[in-house]
């Protein structure tokens, strides 16, 4: 298989000869082999594992994104990625960088929803007058 990991502004990895891929979605981990049916999956922050004959197993911490498998081509589009050989370091990077960002985004979204609600409420009051 050919694996491309895409970030918003660059290609993070472009690997050929990938024998297998393991990724994480909201439903849990799943694996891809070369002749699996085509699919699309929403990825959660976690560890993406792929294996090549030259490099062996490669661990990559990824942020949330999407995986698309078409034939022997697999494309993973994520906001951020970190490659490394120390699995503990990568797991802590996922926890500290990617999941913390999600909490910050949730806080921003909650604040925006509250502001929007207040605006709608005030517009309704103005309309009544």
Automatic annotation (TrEMBL):
Functionally, this protein is described as follows: Produces ATP from ADP in the presence of a proton gradient across the membrane.
Family, per entry: Belongs to the ATPase epsilon chain family.
Keyword Ion transport listed: yes
**Record's bilayer topology term:** Peripheral membrane protein
- The secretion signal range is none
Cross-referenced Pfam families = ATP-synt_DE_N
**From which source organism is this entry?**
Rhodopirellula baltica WH47
Q: Which InterPro entries match?
A: Alt_ATP_synth_F1_esu, ATP_synth_F1_dsu/esu, ATP_synth_F1_dsu/esu_N, ATPsynth_dsu/esu_N
- Its primary localisation, in coarse terms, equals membrane
Sorted keywords for this record are: ATP synthesis, CF(1), Ion transport, Membrane, Transport
Span of domain ATP synthase F1 complex delta/epsilon subunit N-terminal: 1-81
Q: Which NCBIfam families match?
A: alt_F1F0_F1_eps, PRK06228.1
Q: Which compartments does it reside in?
A: Endomembrane system
Q: What is this protein called?
A: F0F1 ATP synthase subunit epsilon
């Amino acid at each position: 298989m050919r694996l491309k990991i895409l970030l918003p502004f660059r290609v993070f990895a472009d690997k050929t000869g990938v024998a297998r891929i393991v990724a994480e979605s909201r439903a849990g981990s799943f694996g891809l082999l070369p002749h699996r049916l085509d699919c699309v999956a929403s990825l959660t922050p976690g560890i993406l594992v792929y294996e090549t004959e030259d490099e062996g197993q490669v661990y990559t911490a990824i942020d949330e994104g999407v995986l698309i498998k078409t034939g022997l081509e697999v494309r993973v589009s994520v906001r951020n990625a970190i490659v490394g050989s120390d699995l503990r370091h990568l797991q802590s990077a996922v926890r500290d960088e990617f999941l913390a960002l999600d909490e910050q985004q949730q806080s921003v979204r909650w604040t925006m929803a509250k502001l929007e609600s207040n605006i709608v409420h005030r517009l309704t009051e103005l309309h009544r007058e």
